[in-house]
Design brief:
β17 and β18 form a beta hairpin. By secondary structure, this protein is mostly beta strands. It has a domain of about 270 residues.
Length: about 400
């Protein structure tokens, strides 16, 4: 696909859903998305595909049972709590993308703005496509990021060496559970999903970290986070994926903040106030008194030692503009392995985030230069140290002696 400058106005919604923040993505020429609370700025987390499921010939291979450690959203007997849906299955997340990672077809490995490049469905046969509803999380007829490439300025380029272990990071703005992988494609090739699938990167080790902005020391707030990784039933076969380590709040969710554990949070961070997933955060919604707490035990506990500061490692995040509290303020950092035999040159990195709660796959891309393994040039293997972007609570640094 050839990139070009195209005249399309992108409405800068602030409520995206999930995107890579390190390496810096194509749209982050202003270096804003890594900072706490800014991962969705400039429409950064609006690149995805909507209303998709695994292929009809594909069996579910991941997160199927409630005891599966890869599960991020659990069975909801919605008949009991909302009789309007008598025909819904008990497992309302059946055949969503995370149930067979990598198999769901996407329009673009770098995402389409608003998720509905052909318009939103307006009939039950899914043949009539028009403008989307007033939900700011969906936009009709948005461009493919690959085509829109020429419209961004100061596009970042990150330098890695062949054979290095390098840090990658993403933030979730609206937490749909599921999991993710990172892939490379040579710039000289067509930037197709097939090309990226041919170069999936392995994760390194069984730990990951929560980091606030560029403040590397802030990882000490929650320490090493045990990573849940899988190669079972993934596509391409044997490709490595990691579960989203941040649990959303209990319940099936909804379009309203107070129906997904994000209500009544009016500060940012919401220090001393209602914290996500708490009973107060559901007040005024359909699930008030029915749900509270996160989908699974979060690293750092619930509510956690920093909850009084408005900082916690669980929750849905995006509050649809209904109030200002509740967004997730940290990046999720992993190590990935750059192949030793990778030919030096220009590449594109794609992060693919397969959701479990929603019928969506989120993508974002970044330019990468691969240097020879023995190069003496400087590289960007580690996220550079810097400010967090918010005032952090007191925390202790453990120093090895």
């Amino acid at each position: 696909m050839v990139s070009a400058k195209i005249c399309v106005s992108l409405v800068p919604f602030v409520n995206g859903h999930g995107n890579i923040v390190w390496p810096r993505a194509w749209w982050d020429g202003g270096d804003v998305n890594m900072y706490s609370g800014h991962s969705g700025d400039n429409g950064a987390a609006m690149w995805f595909v909507d209303n998709v499921v695994i292929p009809t010939t594909q069996t579910q291979t991941n997160a199927v049972s409630n005891t599966d450690p890869m599960r991020t959203y659990y069975d909801i007997n919605i008949h009991k709590i909302d009789p309007r849906y008598p025909n819904y299955p008990i497992d309302i997340y059946t055949n969503h993308a995370w149930r067979a990672p990598g198999t769901t077809q996407v329009d673009s490995p770098c995402g389409s703005y608003g998720g509905n490049p052909y318009g939103c469905w307006t009939d039950t046969t899914h043949t009539k496509h028009e403008e989307c509803s007033d939900d700011p999380g969906n936009v009709a007829f948005g461009p493919d990021a690959r085509d829109y490439y020429g419209n961004w300025t100061n596009i970042p380029n990150t330098r890695w060496k062949a054979g290095q272990q390098v840090e990658v990071a993403w933030q979730v703005v609206a937490n749909h559970g599921g999991g993710y992988s990172y892939r490379l494609c040579p710039r000289s090739s067509e930037l197709s999903e097939e090309c990226f699938q041919a170069h999936v990167l392995d994760f390194v080790g069984d730990k990951q970290w929560f980091q606030f902005g560029y403040n590397r020391a802030s990882r000490a707030m929650f320490g090493d986070v045990p990573a849940k990784r899988t190669t079972k039933g993934t596509h391409p076969k044997g490709s490595m994926w990691t579960r989203n380590p941040t649990p959303a709040c209990q319940g099936p969710g909804s379009g309203n903040a107070n129906e997904r554990g994000g209500g009544n949070q009016f500060e940012y961070p919401n220090a001393g106030g209602t914290y996500s997933c708490s009973p107060d955060s559901y007040k005024g919604g359909s699930w008030e008194g029915k749900y509270s707490g996160p989908q699974f035990e979060p690293h750092g506990g619930y509510p956690g030692k920093y909850a009084k500061y408005g900082i916690y490692t669980y929750g849905f995040g995006n509050n649809q503009g209904q109030n200002t509290g509740g967004p997730l303020l940290y990046s999720m950092v992993d190590l990935v392995q750059v192949p030793k035999n990778l030919k030096p040159g220009q590449y594109v990195l794609s992060q693919r985030y397969d959701c479990e709660q929603t019928l969506q796959v989120w993508n974002s891309c970044a330019d990468i230069t691969i240097l020879p393994a023995d190069s003496t040039e400087s590289d960007d293997a580690l996220i550079p140290d810097g400010p967090a972007g918010i005032d952090l609570p007191p925390f202790t640094l453990e120093v090895e002696v």
